[in-house]
Structure formats: C-alpha cells, structure tokens
Amino acid sequence: MPVQIEIRDRIAVVTIDNPPVNAMSRAVRQGLSDAITQTEANPEITAVVVTCAGRTFVAGADIREFGKPPQEPHLPDLLDRIEGARKPWIAAIHGNALGGGLELAMACRFRLASATARLGLPEVTLGLIPGAGGTVRLPRLVPSDKALEMIATGRPISANIAHRVGLIDAITSGDLLTTALELAHQADTVSPTLSRPVRSETSAGSLNAQIANIQTRTEGQAAPEAAILALRNALTLPPTDALKKERDLFLSLKDGPQSGAMRHIFFAERATLQSIRETLADPLPVQRVGIVGGGTMGAGIAAACLLAGIAVSLVERDTEAARAGANRVTAILDNSLKRGKLTKATHNERLEAFHAGDQLLSLADADLVIEAVFEDISVKKDVLAQLDHIVRPETVLATNTSYLDVSAIAASTQHPERVIGLHFFAPAHIMKLLEIVTPKGLSARTLSTGVTLAKQLGKIPVLAGVCDGFIANRMMSAYRREAEYMLEDGALPWQIDHAMESFGFPMGLFRMQDLAGLDISWAMRKRQAATRDPAQRYVEVGDLLCGAGHFGRKTGRGYYVYDDVGTPFPSLEAEALIHAESARKGIDRREISESEIMDRLLTAMQSEGRRILDEGIASSANDIDVVMVNAFGFPRWKGGPMYCSASD
Questions:
Q1: CA–CA separation, 208 vs 189, rounded Å?
Q2: Which parts of the chain register pLDDT below 50?
Q3: Of 45, 194, 289, 622, which has the fewest CB atoms closer than 10 Å, so is most exposed?
Q4: By CB neighbour count within 10 A (0-12 exposed, 13-18 middle, 19+ buried), where does 162 fall?
Q5: CB atoms within 10 A of CB 197
Q6: pLDDT, position 68
Q7: How many angstroms separate the most distant Cα atoms in the chain?
Q8: Cα dihedral angle (188, 193, 198, 199), rounded to 10 degrees?
Q9: Contacts of 14 (CB under 8 A, 6+ apart)
C-alpha cells in the first residue's frame, strides 16, 4: 500500500511510500482519503503527521496520469478534507515538496521541514497553474509578492527562505519525524490556512510593477498570465470563490495547446537516451576532467565541471593564456558565490580543485579530456593525437567541435574508439543542452562515460550522428539560409527578428548572430565553400559585412549598429547593402508579412529536421525539438518545430 498509518502516543503517522518521488497518484490520493476517514473516526487520535518514505516528500503529480481524465478522489477535495479535519495535520517535509506536494503541506495546520528541503509550485513550467488551492493558500502564508514570484516563475525556494517568509513554521536539523511528533501538540493552536487573511504587506504599486515585469518576460505565455489572475483573485475574493476560479483556470490551461506542448517537451527531455538505455555499459568514473583551451567555451566547460564537484586541469598554449583562462573560470565561480549559488566554503573547495597551466602532460591523470580549441580540424587533430600518447589507456577523449567531422578527428588517434563529441553550448556553465556526437566505432564504455558526465553536469544529453553541424547547428544553418533568402526577397533583419520574437524566440536570428560574432559563421562558410553546391542559392550579405570588418556587437557594427552600452539599432549601411544585393541579382523586392516570415522559417526547420531523421543523425523527432528549445530558444510553449508540424 502506498499510504500506511501507524499510531504513536495518540498521534497518527501517515506515511506515503510511492517511489521514486512519492508522486500524488490516484492510489496515494485514495490512501490519504482513507487515512482522513480513519483518523477522524478514532477518538484516541489527537493529531496526524504526514510524512514520506525515501528521499523526498511528495514531489508533484504522477506524470503517468498526464493527459488522462482525472480520477477520484480529486486532489482539491482531498486537501479541503485535510484542512477541515478536526484532528490537525502536520506536514513533515524532507527533500522536495513540489506542486501537489506543497499544496498538501499548505492544507496542513503546521509545516515542519528539514534544513535541506526545497519547496515550490512549478506548474507554470508545464503550462499550468496550481489547481488544488495553491494560489489561494500560498498568499495567506507568505507575502503576496513572494507568492506571485513562486506561482508565476515556478522556481522553488530553500527551507531557510520558506521559514523566513512564513511558508513553513519550523526547521529541524535533527530527526524529522521525532521533531514532528514533539511539535504535534502545537498544531491545534494554529488557524487553518484558508481561515487566515491574505498577507498584503506588499504595496499595490510594487505588486503591479512586479506583475508588469513578469508579463514582459513571459509575453505570449498563457500560464504566467493565468497565475497573475489567480493571485489577484486570491487577494480580492472570498476563498471559496477564489478556489473555484483557480480550478477553472487550471482546467482551461490543462486542455489548452500550450500545456500540451510543454508536456511534450517535458517528456521528450526525459527520453533522449531511450534508444540506447539497454546497451549502455559501465562508465569510467569521472573525478578529474582535463580541458584544453581556456577561451570562453573552455572556461565555461571548466566552470560547469567545477560547479558539479569535478576536479579540473585546464591547459593553454602558454603561461599568459593559462592565466587568462584561469581568470575566466574564477570569475564564473565568483559570480556563483555572489549570487548565492555557492557557499564560501564550497567556493574555496572548487577553486582548490582547479589547476591551470601550459603543459599537456599535466592531463596524464585525467579521466576524461575535452579539447575546446579553435574550430580548425587540423588543430583539433593535433591536440588529440598528442593527448593519445599522454593520457591513460582508458581515458576518454572528447572534442567540443560545433561542426567538424568527429570521425576524422578520432582517426587522428591510435584509439578512435575512445573519442567522442561533446558539443557544449555557450555559456557552457548555464546552457542545459549537451549534444553527444557518436562516431562509428565508438565504444559502449566511451558513450556511457559521456552520458554519465552529462548527468553529473545536470545537462540534457541528446545523441547526434556525425554530419556537418550535427543536429543543432545543422538546423540553425537551414533556417538561417531561409532568413537570408528573405533578406534578398524583401525583408530586413529587424523585421525578421521582430517576427521571431513575436513568435516567442527570446532573440531574433540576426541579433543573435551579431551577439555571437559574424566572423564565426563566416569562417564556417569559407570552410564549406569548396564543397558547396554551385546550383544552390547563396546569399553574400554576411560575407560582405565581415569583409568590411563588421563582425557584430564586438565591433559595434553588423546587421545592427550598437551604442556604447550595446543597444542595437537598425543599420542603414546593412540595409543599403541588402538592397544592393537584391538589385545585383535582379530580385524584385516585395513586402513580406510576419506570418509569412514565420511560415518560411518553420518550413525550413521542419524540412531539415525530416532530412536529419532520414539520415539517422537524430534518434527521434522529439530529440530535434529538445535541441531547438534548449539550444536556440524555440518557445517551449510551442513544443519545438517538429511538434508544431505534427500538431498542424
């Protein structure tokens, strides 16, 4: 049974045991319903402690029930019964109390948590809002601005913060259940949550400014807007009315297209390794990583490893470059300390686990070495060929190439079976996606080690075959080509960017290219020039900008011009160049609407995606969606380009 009852000194201990995360399944809900009935009917029981077995409190809904009709007992009704019970309930929280788990805790009379617990309402990340009283109970426990932040962003908070703002009543570093039993008698002196007034310490002006900020950051998304409305209802309406309106909003979102798309991505991100789960071998334990190259990417990879608790040795071409690389890594760790992501003690530990120098021989004891040098295949081959003679026979060698042939790079070593592609995305310590590129002949242990590293770093691993650009950059090249065609056909960079941003991309393609540096894609096009199909339409606008020394934001000019603080403005010079190219090719420019812009871009993505699948470069269409959402900001609430195609 997933719910068990034990009586201890007139206190009922109700234990939820539904591994792995004690999800609020129908069986758990039924067990809790039965527990309410039994404890209310037993005159010997004075209070109830609800706790969970295993590593966590209830961490949310049962994802196996997503998309299915809800079954009784419904969670809102269950929580109403807990809150209204004559015998007060006490929540003893450890691990994560998320979604329905936190709603359960808030329906209890008293909340106790372990010092390491985390609490949150992440429903907005699935295109939903809390649907079992979360938006109505929360602002009666915490100030309204904190309630809005938690509901509209979905970010969990620590036990310390939860205690400080009033979400929990006590923290313990001792035995959680023992402390809960000791405190159980206090619960009868605490008012039920819904009988409390809302906490309106936040001024109306401050709350409205917070709402405006959220609306700006989440434009186009239905769930944050519904969260704002639900909170307003909670602050202004009687609890019964606010609960009903919350439920109506929840059900409307649940049946809407955005939640469907976000659930699609939720499941897709958790299934990226499905095709190889049965074939993974025992990985090589990775305790020390070597990084060759201390530029922006190499430093970001090094920081990602250090933040995950992995020791790092970084190597650059000379002492000065090594010092610069070390400074980049240290700056990232310092920023993590400043933002509260690391304690001072942990920050010091991470720095002690980091070494930078100019000798490849210092990588001899590394378990895995990643080269992050200049995107030139001869340079990368040379680095790996040298490493092949330095590291231990079992050490995994990885290339961080964005486009190049990983099989050819692996062939430069005597043991190509231990060479893998690990394509990180900048900034590497922040971006969640990791493309794992699998050349032919790759050993099962090497692949397993790459997958294990991805998990250690908290990345989303996506498998990709060997081709120019793999999945991510090949997809981006395809829709960039189509965008460039539209430049010659009649659109301007800022018009295309505006269409993309209105669709939901955080940044348009041409602004993104300016930010990354136009010289990067220029180098790739020059490399491909010898093998480019002469019959294929080719747009020279980017080449001409680069030829004039306009590399984007870093030079102050690209598709846009930039002021001293980096604000972009339409470039009249770029516009004139685009018009001149259209005239040179005899193209009659015409107005292109935003809807046509997005139709053409999506069609280009979908067509390239189908080719990638046909060639076996990606394992599934879902993997392509995961890549586009996590690498290039394709709006999560639209599910990715392949999902858009499937749902048309």
A1: 35
A2: 648
A3: 45
A4: buried
A5: 8
A6: 80
A7: 92
A8: 60
A9: 3, 4, 5, 32, 35, 39, 48, 49, 50, 51
Residue 605 · residue 483 · CB < 8 Å: no
Q: Which two tokens stand for residue 173?
A: 């570093």
Are the beta carbons of 188 and 88 closer than 8 angstroms? yes
What is the reported pLDDT for 293? 97
pLDDT of residue 647: 53
User: Would you tell me how many other CB atoms lie within 10 Å of the CB of residue 50?
Assistant: 25
Q: Is the pTM of this model over 0.90?
A: yes
pLDDT computed for residue 504 by the predictor: 95
> What CA–CA distances, in Å, run from 387 to 286, 310, 313, 390, 398?
17, 20, 14, 5, 11
- Give 169-212 as a 3 state SS string: CEEECCCHHHHHHHHHHHHHHCCCHHHCCCCCCCCHHHHHHHHH
Amino acid identity of residue 271, one-letter, is A
- The Cα-based distances of 286 to 166, 386, 456, 468, 483 in angstroms read 41, 21, 9, 29, 42
C-alpha–C-alpha distance, residues 421 and 410, integer Å: 9
Give the 3-state DSSP-derived string for 486-522, with helices as H, strands as E and coil as C.
HHHHCCCHHHHHHHHHHHCCCCCHHHHHHHHCHHHHH
Q: What is the DSSP letter of 552?
A: B
Q: 223, 91, 197, 186: which is closest to 137 by C-alpha?
A: 197
Count of C-beta atoms within a 10 Å radius of residue 517: 17
Residue with the two structure tokens 């809800």: 70
At residue 88, what is the residue type? Answer: P
What are the C-alpha distances in Å from 359 to residues 277, 319, 343, 390? 38, 9, 31, 11
Catalytic residues: 103, 123
Lookup: tokens for 135: 């938006």
Q: Round to whole Å and give the CA distance between 118 and 517.
A: 40
Instruction: Kindly list the structural domains of the chain, giving each domain's residue range(s) and its CATH number in brackets, ordered by start.
Output: 3-255 (3.90.226.10), 275-464 (3.40.50.720), 472-616 (1.10.1040.50)
